[in-house]
TrEMBL record:
One example GO MF annotation: dTMP kinase activity
EC numbers: 2.7.4.9
The species this protein was found in: Methylophilales bacterium HTCC2181
Record keywords: ATP-binding, Kinase, Nucleotide biosynthesis, Nucleotide-binding, Transferase
Chain ranges passing through the membrane: none
Domain Thymidylate kinase-like: 9-195
Short name of one Pfam family: Thymidylate_kin
Keyword Nucleotide-binding: yes
Name recorded for this polypeptide: Thymidylate kinase
Family indicated by similarity: Belongs to the thymidylate kinase family.
Length: 204
């Protein structure tokens, strides 16, 4: 049996991440490998309730950071760890890199506070592989305008989105063995070919 992977998907809002989730789902289904798709904030009953608050209520940035980690703690304890222990690959639409990008990069929360919460909640759990969907913010903001009603993060000023993109790219540079940056301006098929190649390589 292959060792299950813990995969996270990241990117600024409007980077096109959602388009590729179904492709990744189909990839694992076709290979006959057990997998579980989930998301943050959310992924559990409690986490989904916290998600509603987090995406729609204004709050202090540190409060927001701690609520993200409260939702994450529940997610890890009741979903992520048990699934990985059962040999099931977990694919999470966002994880802790999003907290570094949005709460530290976007809102100025001290990254050291996030380090503390991370070590408390995650211990040694980290994604094996992170796909970062990267696009210039002029494009991501334009894409957001064409979609559903925007949440509080999506409604932020362009400078906020730019800080998040920069923070994500910095993280990708710091952890090159874990991150795969995908150019979200490329054709959907080209991005999916790249995802397939990376997954094939990881799964041997
Ligand atoms: P999404 O599911 O559409 O990506 O929306 C989730 C939003 O929550 C997105 O704007 C990013 C934000 N977010 C944070 O600010 N910090 C976090 O730690 C996570 C997981 C998400």
């Amino acid at each position: 049996m292959n060792k299950p992977l813990f995969i996270s998907l990241e990117g600024v809002d409007g980077a096109g991440k959602t388009t590729h989730i179904h492709f990744i789902e189909d990839y694992f289904r076709t290979k006959g490998l057990p997998f579980y798709m989930t998301r943050e904030p959310g992924g559990t009953d409690l986490g989904e309730k916290l998600r509603l608050l987090l995406l729609h209520e204004e709050m202090d940035a540190l409060t927001e950071t701690m609520l993200m980690f409260a939702a994450r703690c529940e997610h890890i304890q009741t979903i992520i760890k048990p699934k990985l222990d059962q040999g099931i690959t977990v694919v999470s639409d966002r994880f802790t890199d999003a907290t570094y990008a949005y709460q530290a990069g976007g809102k100025g929360v001290d990254a050291r506070s996030i380090d503390v919460l991370k070590s408390l909640v995650q211990k040694d759990l980290d994604p094996d592989l992170t796909f970062l969907f990267d696009v210039p913010v002029e494009i991501s903001i334009e894409r957001l305008k064409d979609t559903r009603t925007m949440d509080k993060f999506e409604r932020e000023e362009p400078i906020f989105h730019q800080s998040i993109r920069n923070a994500y790219l910095d993280l990708a540079q710091s952890f090159p063995q874990r991150f795969h940056v995908l150019n979200g301006t490329h054709a959907i098929e080209a991005i999916q070919d790249e995802i397939k190649l990376i997954l094939d390589r990881r799964l041997g």
